[in-house]
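stuck on this chain:
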Amino acid sequence: MEGEEEKPVVEKILTLSEIRSIAGRKGVEAKRAKAANPPEPKQNGDAKAHTNGHANADLILEALRKKGEKGNVAAAKYYHQCVGVKRAVGLDPQFLEQVFPSTLGGLCVPAWDNSPHIWEMEQLFLSLQREEFRRLMISIPIRHGKSEYANLLIAWLLIRWPKTRILRVMASADTALKMARDVLKYIERWGEYLNGVRLDKRRAAAEHFETEAGGMLRSVGAAGDVESWTFDWIIIDDLITDPYEIRSPNRRDQLYKDLQTKFFSRVNPLGNTKFVVIGSRRHPDDPQGRLLDADRKKQPEPYDAWYYHYRPALFDEGTDHESCLWPNSKEFTVEGLKAIRDQKIADDVYWEWLCNFQNDPISCPDMLLFDPSWFGEDMFYPAELPREALEDISNTIIAFDPSMGDGSDPSCHFACICIRFTRTGAMFVDDTYLAQAAPDTAIEMSVALIERNQDVEVVVMESNAGGRYVGKCIEDACEAKGLRCPMVYKNWSAGDQKLDNKDQQGRISLALWEKLSKRKIKLRDTPWNRVLYRQLRGFPTEHDDGPDCLATADIVLRQLLTTGR
């Protein structure tokens, strides 16, 4: 009786196509009986006999990887013959759970190598898929397989979850299209075999294709348009690569604004959109650097913070135990990487080695005025260090660079810095506000900084039109709160021709060169001082508001001490 009650259920499960998919010449009734009374799963080492009659995952993958005369399609057909099935549609979840992006790599990419750094990336992407965190940033060296792995990741997501909507943004539309064609090819070849996933023939262009289930991949360049679309995954892959864009502060600003407003805003309102940024570092102020700086300022919850994973091409560089990130690579061995580094040095583009291979972004040294070796973590002192612990302080000056004069760029920073000078001329940058801010916010933050440093002797403001307006607003606000604000206005058009240099770049270089080279500038370790550090290190390719502020304070102090004016 019990068997008879189950018989109609079996008839509903076994369709005609499923019956035809079973190999052999056994009768239909025998097949029904087998489906109605499946054998218990068996454990035999790593092999698992699944209840639907399919071979264990190891055998499946081994058969899939077999190469036939007609390539991987022939290998798939070989697998179907091995397990006695003509089609693999509807494979059980136990098998699909053992298919990962790296599995597709073994099937689709000639000479695919699951090296340690690829395995690390895969574990992070799986954690992201499990929603252990929401934002993942990966920086590994150029030509180490990150974009190829991104192709496999996207194909895997659309095969496993064919309703997933994915956006991929790359530096150029041509590169995005090339990568999209590879993803399209992988899904066409393996989607139906692995999970019954088919592409919608009505929407099968490489730059925008969809699955029959409603999932999609839209691939655009940095200038592309995604208005009115929403996505479950937003993947930014090498957004900035052009040397001109890398060296241009304005272009980096625009890319970052586009990233936030044009691409990251396209979240799925009914889902939990995941964000991925992949790419080697190109500059301290590249999109990755901006995003990490924003995290340091906002300090979001761990789930919403960027999980940053980076690796250099050459570990323990300069020691007797150097090792490479990709041991199986023929080009990027320890000897090969050293040769690349030596060539970069010979070509006077050592910065390319540091940025592209070591993920230690610095500005382009062929445009820098300050030696990168002058900078390091020893430039900072602890944020919690009491002010009284600073030794031999003789003068305290607060300097402003409001960046509101003629010709100022809207992306410039408002700088307000409190500097404590020692008797030997060293500078302790003790309190800083350095940000892109509206005038009201900048004035409010400036007054708060003056209130924290009431032992200040002089407050210096540039005397351009915007500076005089901001200075008057700050003086009025301080007077209303009963605060000291000994404001003076600095005009660069008169006075000592060596110090009062109209050429901003020359003025900053002359004032700060000796102090930086002799390690006489120290910064309290705060988020704003980290921005100042980046501007100093990248001068003049970075925004120069912070360095100009330091130079102004130093020049005014020299004039006060030597001429009394």
About this structure: The longest helix spans residues 173-195. Confidence is low (pLDDT under 50) at residues 1-28, 38-60, 65-91.
